[in-house]
Amino acid sequence: xxxxxxxxxxxxxxxxxxxxxxxxxxxxxxxxxxxxxxxxxxxxxxxxxxxxxxxxxxxxxxxxxxxxxxxxxxxxxxxxxxxxxxxxxxxxxxxxxxxxxxxxxxxxxxxxxxxxxxxxxxxxxxxxxxxxxxxxxxxxxxxx
Length: 144
Prior knowledge:
- By secondary structure, the protein is mainly α.
- The chain contains 2 helices and 2 strands; from the N terminus they run H-H-E-E.
- Strands 1-2 form a two-stranded antiparallel sheet.
- The termini are far apart.
């Protein structure tokens, strides 16, 4: 009869096999838990970084859009002011004489009718004294 000795590479038999199997099972569970924990931490970190960068990108995009909207609004306002300046310009052509004041009043009233954005018009002479005031909000006879 041939008697075999157990090699180091052979699995144990009997009661020692249960202990060995139990130890391998616990070690396997520890490695699985460690692997799951590492992968979970990596995924969570990646998700948090993605959220952060997405937030930054969104914030920069919002800032750029708001800047463009503000520039467009400023351009429209500038154009609106230039149009009003051009429409007011023809009312300042007359010299300051007593006979011209009625013509100025007529031109000012016509300007108020043609340009709804203008609600009041005051004209000053070279010394800064108000010579004419016309308003669509004030009662008629607006010269003070």
